[in-house]
From TrEMBL:
Protein name: Cobyric acid synthase
Function according to Swiss-Prot or TrEMBL: Catalyzes amidations at positions B, D, E, and G on adenosylcobyrinic A,C-diamide. NH(2) groups are provided by glutamine, and one molecule of ATP is hydrogenolyzed for each amidation.
Origin superkingdom: Bacteria
SUPFAM superfamilies: Class I glutamine amidotransferase-like (SSF52317), P-loop containing nucleoside triphosphate hydrolases (SSF52540)
PANTHER family named in the record: COBYRIC ACID SYNTHASE, DETHIOBIOTIN SYNTHETASE
Record: active site: 340 (nucleophile), 432
Organism in which the protein naturally occurs: Nocardia jiangsuensis
UniProt keyword Coiled coil, yes or no: no
UniProt entry keywords in alphabetical sequence: Cobalamin biosynthesis, Glutamine amidotransferase
Record-linked InterPro entries: Class_I_gatase-like, CobQ/CobB/MinD/ParA_Nub-bd_dom, CobQ_GATase1, CobQ_N, CobQ_synth, GATase_3, P-loop_NTPase
Length: 512
């Protein structure tokens, strides 16, 4: 393979499977000794992680880096948009927040962002044998073509071959694949080299006639049909997976006599929703996203996760009655966990001149805690211990809020400083990833179960979240290796777009 080969994996829709296909390809190539790196020019997600170089990138790119055997780096996701409302997003460039933008004023950043993307991709291609690029949304959003940095705009600028992934589980995949190509302008179409079908159930031979007709209509082959599996659920790309009243993962049978039920509140602007996935890794722990008060009544534990719009989501808790339900629960001594923005909401007061501009806002009053928002955003990896048990812990922090006063005992000690709060059966922390610390999670869940009266619940001593994540990456690589034409994909990486790819449909012309 020629050093510096690159390929773009696009999708017919958001959540079509771009992230998992890139992760699977990364893992499959890395297992064969290829020096491979992931790249997503522009991501829009509130699920992010802190990198070793002190920046912030989408969580999917961190997982893809892990698939390659690499530490997460801002190089892999140089532009991140974090939605704080329906019309405004925080713009993160090379790991640092630089502005808050709407769709219209995003245009003024276009030239500078193109240069950032081009520089980072060129740098990665110089350092690695292969770079697997992930698109964003769909390349068929031709109304956005003029400002596109992550789909055909990237492919055209860098001369990348493009594979389009479609999710057959949603129905209409053949039309989606054909239509995605047909609406592109001719120069973009000539970069689309083939298709991948994702989440197929049943006998692939029944699909074969449709794929043959798709090849005849488009002049492009389908390079793989990946089967559906419900074993892939860790590290969701965005909030599409956090649907209210939906389960998280598929927990293994309980090790003890009783199950533990967990209700995770699905905030409108939930961020780092993946924090609750570590709980769902525990046998006998049933985790479900909820969005209305009645769903809290039977839960043994309620989790209030992070938010990209803390004050706005706090107001939503009050409007929906969930705030009253949490306060009733606290008065009854039932377990609650708040993480990052959720932790801040549990305090007595938030002063926010940064995200919402609302100034001083009363919290839920479950902690004696005051938080003030300020720039710059706190971005750091942290390590320390749980104060009571002295169990080692680690994770990362992403927040504008600083604790200005607290009257409750700290839960943790990080880098020698107290962090988080404990009051009865209520816990809070700014530390994302805390529950991935297996020893901490097991001991804490025993405490939660005792407070909830679930004396028959027993955490598993042999569950490792890191090992489960690695197993999912290996499963992805196995699926790609078995069900995709990996040699053909490697040829695209080495040789670039095939010559003579036909233009189909109307061959629309869009402004560049």
């Amino acid at each position: 393979m020629t050093p510096g080969g690159a390929l773009l994996v696009a999708g017919t829709t958001s959540d079509a499977g771009k992230s998992v296909v890139v992760a699977g390809l990364c893992r499959a190539l890395a297992r064969r000794g290829v020096r491979v790196a992931p790249f997503k020019a522009q991501n829009m997600s509130n699920n992010s992680v802190v990198t070793l170089d002190g920046g912030e990138i989408g969580r999917a790119q961190a997982l893809q880096a892990r698939a390659c055997g690499l530490e997460p780096s801002v190089r892999f996701n140089p532009i991140l948009l974090k939605p704080g409302g329906d019309h405004r997003s925080q713009l993160v460039v090379r790991g640092r927040a630089v502005d808050t933008v709407g769709a219209r004023d995003y245009f003024r950043h276009r030239t500078a962002l193109r240069e950032v993307v081009a520089d980072e991709l060129a740098s990665l291609r110089a350092d690695f044998d292969a770079v697997l690029c992930e698109g964003a949304g769909s390349p068929a959003e031709i109304n956005l073509r003029a400002t596109d940095l992550a789909n055909m705009g990237l492919a055209r600028a860098a001369g990348l071959p493009v594979i389009v992934v479609g999710d057959i589980d949603r129905g209409g995949v053949l039309a989606h694949l054909f239509g995605t190509v047909a609406v592109l302008e001719p120069a973009d179409q000539r970069l689309v080299a083939g298709f991948l079908v994702n989440k197929f159930r049943g006998d692939v031979e029944l699909l074969r006639p449709g794929l043959d007709q798709l090849a005849a209509l488009t002049g492009r082959p389908t390079l793989g049909v990946l089967p559906y599996t419900d074993e892939l659920w860790l590290d969701a790309e965005d909030s599409l997976g956090t649907v209210a009243d939906a389960p998280v993962g598929r927990p293994a049978p309980a090790r003890g006599r009783e199950w533990l039920s967990v209700a995770a509140i699905r905030l409108p602007r939930v961020s780092n929703s993946t924090d609750v996935e570590a709980l769902a890794c525990e046998p006998g722990t049933a985790v479900r996203w909820v969005a209305e008060p009645s769903r809290l009544a039977g839960a043994d534990l309620v989790v209030l996760p992070g938010s990209k719009a803390t004050v706005d989501d706090l107001a939503w808790l009050r409007r929906t009655g969930l705030a009253d339900a949490l306060q009733t629960r606290a008065a009854e001594g039932k377990p609650i966990l708040g993480v990052c923005g959720g932790y801040q909401m549990l305090g007595s007061r938030i002063v926010d001149p940064v995200e919402s501009g609302a100034g001083a806002v009363p919290g839920l009053g479950l902690f004696d805690l005051e938080v003030a928002f300020a720039d710059p955003k706190v971005l750091r990896r942290s390590a320390g211990r749980e104060l009571g048990s002295r169990i080692p812990v680690h994770g990362y922090e992403i927040h504008h809020g600083r604790v200005t006063r607290t009257g409750d005992p700290a839960w943790l000690e990080l880098e020698g400083q107290p962090e988080g709060s404990v009051r009865g059966a209520i816990w809070g922390t700014h530390l994302h990833g805390l529950l991935e610390c297996d020893e901490l999670r097991r001991g804490w869940l025993r405490t939660v179960a005792a407070a909830a009266g679930r004396t028959g619940f027993e955490p598993a001593a042999d569950v490792s979240v890191a090992a489960l994540r690695t197993a999912q990456l290996d499963l992805l690589a196995d699926l790609v290796s078995e069900h995709a034409d990996l040699p053909a994909l490697e040829r695209l990486l080495a040789d670039g777009p095939p010559a003579g790819l036909p233009v189909i449909g109307s061959g629309l012309t869009a402004p560049c």
